[in-house]
């Protein structure tokens, strides 16, 4: 009985001593933030999307390794809406920009910005909409 008790105490102490060692776990380095905007599965440059006066919808895909959001538009830029306005990291999110008709006499331009939540990366989508021309 005493031998079992001594053996039990010895094993318990051995486990306690080895289990309490500090582990050197090196965290993986964080990758630089990325935010990619794709149209029809291809990245696009700074060329604006051209929309006819009747309006329309621009489908995009946004992929980022960080959570992201749309930067709010100015209050006078009410002729286009974006849905959804945010997304999660490591997901491809379908985003739709809906452009209202332009019945004015002038073309109009807008820049919609998307940014990682930490603000390290910002990408822009430029839109040019033509005016209604009556002849």
Describe this structure in words.
This protein is mainly beta. The protein has a single domain (35-129), classed as Immunoglobulins (Immunoglobulin-like, Sandwich), CATH 2.60.40.10. It contains one helix and ten strands. The protein has one helix at 2-19; strands spanning 35-39, 42-43, 49-51, 56-64, 68-70, 80-83, 86-87, 92-99, 108-116, 122-129. The strands form two sheets. It has a five-stranded antiparallel beta sheet, with no helix packed on it. The chain has a five-stranded mixed beta sheet with strand order 3-10-9-5-7, with no helix packed on it. The longest helix is centred in the N-terminal third of the chain and has 18 residues, at 2-19. It starts with a helix and ends in a 6-residue tail after the last strand.
Supply database-style keywords.
10 strands, five-stranded antiparallel sheet, mainly beta, 135 residues, five-stranded mixed sheet, 1 helix
List the helices and strands and how they pair.
Elements: H1 2-19, E1 35-39, E2 42-43, E3 49-51, E4 56-64, E5 68-70, E6 80-83, E7 86-87, E8 92-99, E9 108-116, E10 122-129
Parallel strand pairs: 3-10
Antiparallel strand pairs: 1-2, 1-4, 4-8, 5-7, 5-9, 6-8, 9-10
